[in-house]
Amino acid sequence: MTQQLTFNLMPTRKTWTVSELTGKIRDLLAKNFTDINVQGEVSNRREAQSGHIYFTLKDDRSQVRCVYFKQQQRGIKFRPEDGLQVTARGSISVYEQRGEYQIYVEKIELVGQGALQLAFEQLKKRLEDEGLFDAAHKKALPLLPSRIGIITSPKGAAVRDVVRILARRFPNVHLTVYPVRVQGEGSAEEIVKALKFFNAKKMVDVLILARGGGSMEDLWSFNEEIVAHAIFASEIPVISGVGHETDFTIADFVADVRASTPSAAAELVVQTRREFDKHIADLRETLAGQIRYRLLEFSRRVHELSARRGFRRPLDLLRQQRQRADEMTSRLALGLRARLEQSRKRFTAAHLRIASFDFRMKIAAFRLRLEKHTTELGVRAERFLRAKRERWQRLTVQLQERGPLKVLERGYAIATDAAGNLLRDAAQVAFGDTVAIQLHRGRLTTEVRKKETT
């Protein structure tokens, strides 16, 4: 039996699944395109509720999808919009669910010289829509600030100008300078920290945010959104004195008062003092004028009164006024009595109505009647006793007038025998009996020796 040898000259082909192929492409892209810059025009821009931004970057022949996650957007100076020419920096990977490659953007910059201006306009519009520029939120400057806080660089000319103006025109003011960087990385955070410090300590009446002139990039710290929100949240009035006359920053729009320069900011504070002094001077002049007018008016009135007939007869005028006062007093008394009587009737009627519905009021009325009857009974009893006492006194006087003792005063006497029996006849005693004789004053005891019958 002849053995046959078989040779497979065709190469072995690997079969890929879709996921395997997509993963292989993802790994290749992630390995070779980790940090790239891609320039193009933004289109199909869409912002999700999560804050992530999705857009397409395109040129005249191709396009690529881009994802700009929210956590990567910190510090961004503008928001991507359709039609903008930008340079996106990031890495390429594959979104496996759709099998599309896309750029995960880490940083994005505008192409051209107007990048900062566009970022400025976008932020300005967004903050204006949020209400940070509304005049209703602006706080008035204090009339006489005694403590002023200054947020600026300690090395610049701005702080020297502000301090010189305030010290010359407002010598008794207390200045507190919080040193910060006014440009460069981290300067916006320092400005926010200074604003929060003064609001936490409540140590000043007004704040001046000052910086000298410079390019738009130099002044960008005052265009940062965190600085705008910190100024808006400040409970202390803020004056923005940043740049020159023609320079405008976001801080100028959010601040309570905008000054064209740092020196102008100091002038605004001093102006409130000048206004106060002028107001005091105006009030002094107005008061002096009013006093002069009143004096002239009183002088004229005195001359008019002195020329009147009644003024030459002050006694008659005084009497008439007294009589008129008496009449007014009488009328007032009558009116008050009538009013009082009317009020008493109304009170009585109301009292009766209330008493008809309130058992306690009936008890109170019964108690009042009982007290009244008790009082009347006491008065009657006292009157009755007084009458009886007077009658008793009269009878006593009569008894005394008609009693035997009163007769004894006239020289008569009362004779009684030994048993105390009253003797009216001589036959009632015998010779030798003892007889007691009651005189007006004193008592005698005698013995019968002789009797006479009449």
Strand content: 15-25%
- Write out the strand line-up for the largest beta sheet, numbering strands in chain order: 1-2-3-5-4
Encode the helix/strand succession as letters: HEEEEEHEHEHEHEHEHHHHHEEE
How many H/I helical runs? Answer: 11
Q: What form results from the Cα inertia axes? A: elongated
CATH class of the domain at 123-275: Alpha Beta
Major sheet, described briefly?
Answer: 5 strands, mixed, barrel
Class from secondary-structure proportions: alpha/beta
Mean pLDDT: 82
Give the proportion of residues in helices.
40-55%
Full CATH superfamily name of the domain at 123-275: Response regulator
Task: List segments where confidence is low: pLDDT < 50 over at least 5 consecutive residues.
Answer: none
Strand elements, count: 13
In the CATH scheme, what's the topology name of the domain at 123-275?
Rossmann fold
Rounded to the nearest angstrom, the radius of gyration is 61 Å
Q: Which architecture name of the domain at 123-275 does CATH use? A: 3-Layer(aba) Sandwich
End-to-end CA span: 222 Å
